[in-house]
Write the structure tokens for this entry.
Amino acid sequence: MALCISKFVIFSLLFTSTILDSASSRTFARSLFPQELGLNKEKLSHLHFYLHDVVSGRNPTAVLVAEAKTTNTSATGFGAIVVIDDPLTEGPEASSKIVGRAQGLYSSASLNEAGLLMVQNYVFTEGKYNGSTLSVLGRNAVFSSMREMPIVGGSRLFGFARGYAQARTHTVNPHTGDAVVEYNVYVFHY
């Protein structure tokens, strides 16, 4: 009987180690060193541009796509969702050189003050950043003189990006609602 038990224990150990060996060759996740992906020295970049949020006219770049039953009676527009494809320019003038686009959405997400949930990708189209993106996910307290929103990721030259975007309202047309917002973006990336 002892011989049967010892054979069973040996068989079990061999069987278990075989399973563990085959499982380790097909791992779901593993640790890497940044150099294994060609990532060497982390950089800090500063980008400066202007976002043009056009809600009026024949060619708006920001359109209301959904709202709650109470949005129109809410002091903050709570529940409104706006999809954007806003130009990003070098200067505040609409005729300034376009360096990219802000694509995504913002939603009025506060019952008590003008607070927007921002879900956007800055898609760059000029210079060495052409084809690179930065992703923003955060709160925008629109009536604050300066707002900070987190950069939560990016692509191409902004791979593994993290940082923040500072936004300051440059101009707002009180009749149309069109706005120009100045951005300073500080981002760590490889």
